[in-house]
Design goal:
131 residues, mainly alpha, 6 helices
Amino acid sequence: MNNKKIGLSVATLVVCGGLFFASCSRNDEPAPSNNNTNSPPPVNTTLGNNTGSTTTGVSFEASIKKIMTDNRCSSCHSYGNYDAARRNANSIYDRINRAQGAAGLMPQGGTRLPQSDIDLVKKWIDEGLNP
């Protein structure tokens, strides 16, 4: 009887420990420094009025991916991938929107992106991070 209790306790500890360690994950992306929310807004795939007309807004594939690849973001980050860019959208905007020479400005060691690119990233976020 006593051996049953010990075996059950050990099994319980092994299962709980396994679940605990399995829930840990590695995140190589830097923590956002100026982020009010931990999750981006829900994805909105269409914009426009409710009259059946849909106007496509800024999309990752058509606009944002090019900004990320042209400015070498993808060489250090996985922002050429929609899911990674979506998860880190607020941090990306914070880092590219800093003044030239400011700590943490991206691209690291480079020139600040043109304001039109920064505005396009902001619009992409505001429109719901369209794929």
